[in-house]
Amino acid sequence: MVWLRSRWPTTRRTQRPRPSFTGLSKEELLKVAGSPAWVRTRWALLLLFWLGWLGMLAGAVVIIVQAPRCRELPEQRWWHRGALYRIGDLRAFLGQEAGNLADLKERMDYLSTLKVKGFVLGPIHKNQEDDLTETNLEQIDPIFGSKEDFESLLHSAKKKSIRVILDLTPNYKGQNPWFQSIQIDTVAIKMKEALRFWLQTGVDGFQVRDVQNLTNPSSFLAEWQNITKSVSEDRLLIAGTDSSDLQQILRLLEPTRDLLLTSSYLSHSSLTGNHTNFLVTQYLDAFGSNWCSWSVSQAGLLTSFVSPQLLRLYQLLFFTLPGTPVFSYGDEIGLEGAGLPGQPVKAPVMLWDESSFPNTSASINISMTVKGQSEDRNSLLSLFRWLSDQRGKERSLLHGDFYDLSSGPDLFSYIRQWDQNERFLVVLNFGDVGQLARLRASSLPTGTSLPARVDLLLSTQPGREEGTSLELEHLNLQPHEGLLLRFPYVA
Q1: pTM
Q2: CA dist., res. 211 & res. 89, Å (int)
Q3: Domain limits for position 459
């Protein structure tokens, strides 16, 4: 075997070691850090940091100081937050000839859907017509149930966050609700004992009607109010009168403005927009900072005082005015009273469904019942539920300021606003013809003005779409139409 040598010499490539980075030693680092250049740099960066931090702090302080401050929320009781619902005749409301407190307990779910804050029950105490000796304000009439049934009802209502107010008008079956004037001292003693008794049972308040028949109503009301409030400030006393005279109403409330009073103040027939504006603003001015309530009477139905085409308008009015709206059972469906000519109107039977019609041979209109209206989103009942829900949620409707607007003879319009919350504009047409709303904001506070456009939240008449943007300058209303409009707060 022969080995050949290459003519080219082979060379070996040598690898140079890569230098490793070891950084500065401690001594070198201290030497560099102490140099004048680095000392000046560190001080400059530290100064910039603190100047920037102080600048941001100063900016935040300026923003907080210049930002509009939120108004302190007023103290509110439970009856300030929504409507009250009167059940004057228990059996008529239940639609049963033998209805009792146990049956009413089964209707708590329905009351909950109405979003009412409480209901006024009765009277249900034992009362022999015009016989004071056989009247016991502390005993439930056995035809309605027992004290245990009532306590069970209180428990069920509390679970639904619904308050119970008991009507203690003494002689509710007789001619004079307060018996004879010579018996008033005895009645007053019985009343005070009954108030204390039922407060211990757990009721949330009381109602007494026809207080104008008392010999010294303001004095009695003040005394009963003190007893009611002795347990808790969250207990309510409601007084009722059939008077529509504002001065007489104010005299009844003179010693104590912290109670609610239902009256016939707004029961005038054929109210125009201007007249309603006058009555409402006069009432609110007279009450000042005191809380008020709204109803058409101390016990009657809306349909007894308001024409059918204005029922929706009145619901919108009561739910958007400052104060507590008070309704009777059946107002939410437009229930009408019934009675023979020349005789007192009987409490109408609540129309729950087809079975509520007493005369089965008569034509049944399902749209008049709770069942029928619950299935119709455009019904009066659906409107009631929606308004009641909004009334309890929106701050401007709960405790907002009220400003009436000049708008025309058949129109009544006003604004509800609270601090920086959304504003609500209500425009009501009481007339039989369509109207162009010419809104003038002369009553608004300085710096506040009406916007050019508003959003439609609700119309009491079908045909308008929620959320539609409307020009206020060309705002036309149909006959008997009410509009609930909204617009944002602008700083």
Answers
A1: 0.85
A2: 19
A3: 399-487
